[in-house]
Amino acid sequence: MLEIKNLSARIGDKDILRGVTLSVPDGEIHAIMGPNGAGKSTLSYVLSGREGYEVTGGEVIYNGQDILALTPEARAAAGMFLAFQYPVELPGVGNANFLRTALNAVRRARGEAELDAVAFLKLARAALKNLSMQDDMLKRNVNVGFSGGEKKRNEVLQMALLQPGLAILDETDSGLDIDALKIVAEGVNALRSPAFSALVITHYQRLLDYIVPDKVHVLAAGRIVRSGGPELALELEAHGYAGLEVA
Amino acid sequence: MSATVETRDTVETLTADKYKYGFTTDIAMEEFPKGLNEDIVRLISAKKNEPDWLLAWRLKAFALWRKLEEPAWAHITHPPISYDELYYYAAPSGPAPKSLEEVDPALLDMYEKLGIPLNERAALAGVAVDAVFDSVSVATTFRETLAKAGVIFCPISEAVREHPELVRKYLGSVVPIGDNFFAALNAAVFSDGSFVYIPKGVRCPMELSTYFRINARNTGQFERTLIIADEGASVSYLEGCTAPQRDENQLHAAVVELVALDEAKIKYSTVQNWYPGDAEGKGGIYNFVTKRGACRGRNSKISWTQVETGSAITWKYPSCVLQGDGSVGEFYSVALTHNHQQADTGTKMVHIGRNTTSTIISKGISAGHSNNTYRGLVKIMPNASGARNYTQCDSLLIGDQCGAHTVPYIESRNASAKVEHEATTSKIAEDQLFYCRSRGLSEEDAVGLIVNGFCKDVLKELPMEFAVEAQKLLAVSLEGSVG
Amino acid sequence: MTALPTQRLESWRYTDLRALGAMSFAEAPAAFPPPELPDIAAPRLVFVNGLFDAASSAALPFARAFLPVAEADELPLARINAEQARDGMTLEIPAGVDAGVVLLVCHASGGALHLRHRVTLGAGAALTLLEVVKGEGVYWHNPVTDIALGQGARLAHYRLQDESREAFHLATIRADVAADAAYESFTAVLGAKLSRAEFHVELSGPKAHTHLNAAQLLGDSQHGDFTSVVRHRAPDCGSRQTVKSVLSDAARGVFQGRIEVERVAQKTDGYQMSQALLLSPAAEMDIKPELRIFADDVKCSHGATIGALDEEQVFYLRSRGIPEEMARAMLVRAFLTEALEPVTHEEAHALFEAAIAAWWSGK
């Protein structure tokens, strides 16, 4: 269960989040929609602990733990996963090495046994197959020379391996064609379980055709201005975000 | 490229005559005795009715110059320059003209011929011109229009008399008198040049331009330009230069100082087309120039753009000292050398303030027997947190008798700074040439086209009138180079 | 003794030898416990405090007796070496012979050591030379290595410079590479208070090739200078160079790399990349990559970057659960990958990996 209570944050002296309150019960998928500049990406970065964002108020509780004091890696170990809008390229870092290092770091932190190279490879190959991805993905450097779609699929692959309890998808649909979008959505849907929840951040309704949310929230000017069922997304698609700030 | 030897031969015979600014102007001149000593320095100062402080400044520079040595680090060679065989002052004789009407018609004709009409009715709209002929400024146009905006644009000799407080405050504050051999020489004997002051908050209403012309034989030209943009001011300044075709080499040792205060912007563009010498390397200007801008104020910006096609030797490094936090320095350069020309040019970007940024784009083209060197320094000082530099240096070789050299110095003493440098050297790709020719272009035209494309990132920084001129100049300068 | 070069010489502008000039070195101690040798099964030549240590070395059919240096020298340090050299390795690999791996180990504990090594490969010969220099205490190591590669010969030259942190290390390596021959080189710079590795590679026959890489990992107030001149003197030659510097504390790194292309050297392919990571505010890097080109049908490029670790990358790794220190180590190791490319020999590669890992954990 993720509980965001009156969360405020700023970058430099610019306030971006102005009291966001939201809770995502286990087993549910919530969508956050909103116009450009509403604070959607800031919310995902604050939740995952990126530097440069100053939390000025409120708290974030995940599974009973205040996560704002945790390092990014501790949040990952606690089961949170951010799928980046722009996955970072890591020249010189092999994807397999990266995935195994990450997986074992998380397993270690959770008190689980580390995987040896053989066990890891077996796991990774199975995950690749589920996502219709080629094995050579493992040999390449992380995201280097990947197409937009490949980068997003690589994010989903990481998610499949790390098995998070909470996934935050930051505009994962941007720059994806319809086939890639379906693969990403299937990857998320495959994780659905009573122990898994997700925050799907998106500008467009399109992704929500494939990942059907339990709830939709509208973020505007740093606050949640409306919440509703999946039908809210369709309404936004039809009428746009105009006028929402005053709602 | 089998046809090229022939093309080269035909065109090369023509090349020597291609310098269309090579004529001389016959006009009664006053010259000081040749040679350089304290008396000449005193004579220049007296001729200009200069205040004592300026004479003292010149004499100090002269004393320093005598102790300095000609710099030897550049990739250039030339026979020793006999400083005692030069004339240090030459000016049209008679009293200085008080207005355009009083300027010798022969001089006005000459500037017409150079395409720089000084008559305001005929002049390019929106460009004010200061015309410097050998050692003196002969005319400055549009002075009234500028005066209304509070802009001061006049010969520096006049500024010494009319605005002594500004000159005294800023002269030598960016390029100190002992900065280098040629700067010291200039400080001792500079005769004229342009002075610009843009007051607080003023955006200069027109482009300012100085046109330098060396005419007299065996005469050095030592002009000095000082441009100050006060807080929030902005100005775009253009500089052009030509000289007659002579068999002897002539020395040009100018100093340009720019000062930008808080939020001020100065854009300085040069099309340098001094006489380059003939196809055998005889004659041509020795161009030893010190240009430097100080971004003293917060968020100030100095941008240098240069197209260097002339001179037998070019030795210049227009630089930016980025003192103010958030200040920006830019250097865009095209240097083209042909025949026996030698160019050693580039820039220095010294990052002192926080979050300072600099961009360097340099395009060097070498043809004939020429040597073309990019030499640059990017220095990040310990306090320049968040500083950024991006440098791109490309060289193009045309023919197998020339040289292209790249000598960057990159020094970083701040971990939060980010410096990136890229350089390439190549020749014009055969397939590009072939493609153009299969569409009906002659080889020469194709080369001209490709070279202009190679220089596009720099040319687009030039003011419109200059950009067109520069493109033509590149094509003309390259004639006979294909091979 | 010939005077040490000063910073007034353009090629020495970033490295100040006055501290070395102020030292006086006593005669090197004769006895020294035998050095720990890398665990690689290969014939080895061991020099201790500047002299051949037959007891620690294995007999090698290609080794020849040392001959004093006859020729004069233009480079000041090589001239000093020529005046002082008393010993060094002389290897002559006959034409067509693949001599496999040879280990050269130089160990020091004091004195001024001017070893003169000579490596000659006949036409079509091959050799992998793994050079390890180590020591304890204060000394000055000033080795000169002269390499001549015959037509089609191949020398892989891997150097691990892990001198005492109090030592001065100034190495000069010169290689003449004939037609179709290849000089593949990698240097890891970890040790010495002040070090310089100066390479002069002459590609003197058509299709000669060199790979001239380095990784400098420096901390404290170490000064590491990697200087190279690659001269293309024949057509169709290639040179590739990747130099990576990782600087922590108040370390200072220098890279000066010149590619020269002579008029005859058409179709030259020259590439050079120099990158530095500054891990602490007091670190400093100076780079001078230089192209001097007199032939037109060439493809030459160089690039240089100086900056800190990319915090976006660090965050990305951390967001996947990788602890910060491990994330940084991974990124630094990744940064070095391209430099290690020429090290194709597995055991040598492992040796460098271990040295890099040890540096990181001891940093």
**Global geometry of chain B:** globular
**For the CA atoms, what is the radius of gyration of chain A?**
18 Å
CATH level-3 fold name of the domain at 2-89 and 164-246 in chain A: Rossmann fold
Task: Give the overall pLDDT of chain B as a whole number.
Answer: 86
Q: Which pair of protein chains has the largest interface, and what are the residue counts?
A: B-C, 35 and 34 residues
CATH architecture of the domain at 2-89 and 164-246 in chain A: 3-Layer(aba) Sandwich
Specify the CATH homologous superfamily of the domain at 2-89 and 164-246 in chain A. Answer: P-loop containing nucleotide triphosphate hydrolases
Task: Classify the secondary structure makeup of chain A into a structural class.
Answer: alpha/beta
Which H/E pattern describes the elements of chain A?
Answer: EEEHEEHEEHHEHEHEEEH
Overall structural class of chain B, as computed from helix and strand content, comes to alpha/beta
Work out the count of structural domains of chain B.
Answer: 1
Tally of DSSP β-strands of chain A: 12
The largest sheet of chain A, given as strand count, sense and whether it forms a barrel, is: 6 strands, mixed
**What oligomeric state do these chains adopt?**
heterotrimer
- CATH top level of the domain at 2-89 and 164-246 in chain A? Alpha Beta
Low-confidence stretches of chain B are 1-17
- Please state roughly what percent of the residues of chain B sit in beta strands, choosing from under 5%, 5-15%, 15-25%, 25-35%, 35-45% or over 45%: 25-35%
The largest sheet of chain B is: 11 strands, mixed
Summarize the SSE layout with pairings.
The complex is a heterotrimer of chains A (247), B (483) and C (363).
Chain A (H helix, E strand, L loop, with lengths): L1 E10 L2 E11 L4 E5 L6 H9 L5 E9 L2 E2 L5 H6 L2 E4 L6 E5 H15 L7 H14 L10 E2 L5 H15 L3 E5 L7 H14 L5 E6 L12 E6 L2 E6 L2 H9 L8
Parallel strand pairs in A: 3-10, 3-11, 6-9, 9-10
Antiparallel strand pairs in A: 1-2, 1-4, 4-5, 7-8, 11-12
Chain B lengths: L3 H12 L13 E3 L6 H10 L4 H16 L22 E3 L12 H9 L13 E7 L2 E5 L2 H6 L3 E4 H7 L1 H7 L10 H9 L4 E5 L8 E7 L10 E6 L4 E9 L6 E4 L2 E6 L4 E8 L11 E12 L5 E8 L4 E4 L2 E4 L5 E10 L4 E10 L5 E11 L3 E10 L7 E11 L4 E10 L5 E10 L2 H9 L4 H12 L1 H4 L4 H15 L5
Helix pairs in contact in B: 2-3, 3-8, 6-7, 9-10, 10-12
Chain C lengths: L17 H4 L22 E5 L2 E2 L10 E2 L11 H9 L5 E4 L4 E11 L3 E2 L2 E6 L4 E10 L4 E2 L2 E6 L4 E9 L5 E10 L4 E8 L4 E10 L5 E10 L4 E10 L5 E10 L4 E10 L7 E10 L5 E10 L5 E9 L3 H9 L4 H13 L9 H17 L1
Parallel strand pairs in C: 1-5, 4-7, 5-8, 6-9, 7-10, 8-11, 9-12, 10-12, 11-13, 12-14, 13-15, 14-16, 15-17, 16-18, 17-19, 18-20, 19-21
Antiparallel strand pairs in C: 1-2, 3-4
